[in-house]
Q: What sequence folds into this?
């Protein structure tokens, strides 16, 4: 059974940082391109970032470029999202998923507020 479990969300002030983690099991994590999605209240899911199976190729939506960094540790079956300079508009539930979105975690809440 494929499982993706996110952690690391929370409440942070504008300008702060958080590091999200996503632990994968039930599939060969190291062979999959992985993505982070987010969904803000009242909005549809938004793609945030992608990373290829080897971790060398990454992509970001324009609004997070230069502030967020996606990475992975295939030995630990774990995906990461380092988020710096957080802004209120980054408030959302963040999900990790396989690139085809066939599998997705339960999400972790990120709230940016003073």
A:
């Amino acid at each position: 059974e494929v499982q993706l479990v996110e952690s690391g969300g929370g409440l942070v002030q504008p300008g702060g940082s958080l590091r999200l983690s996503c632990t994968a099991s039930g599939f060969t994590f190291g062979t999959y391109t992985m993505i982070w999605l987010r969904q803000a209240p009242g909005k549809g899911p938004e793609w945030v970032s992608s990373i290829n199976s080897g971790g060398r190729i990454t992509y970001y939506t324009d609004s997070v470029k230069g502030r967020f960094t996606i990475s992975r540790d295939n030995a630990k079956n774990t995906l990461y999202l380092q988020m710096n300079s957080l802004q209120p508009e980054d408030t959302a539930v963040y999900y990790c998923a396989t690139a085809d979105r066939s599998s997705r975690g339960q999400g972790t809440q990120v709230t940016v507020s003073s």
In short: DSSP finds no helices and ten strands in the chain.
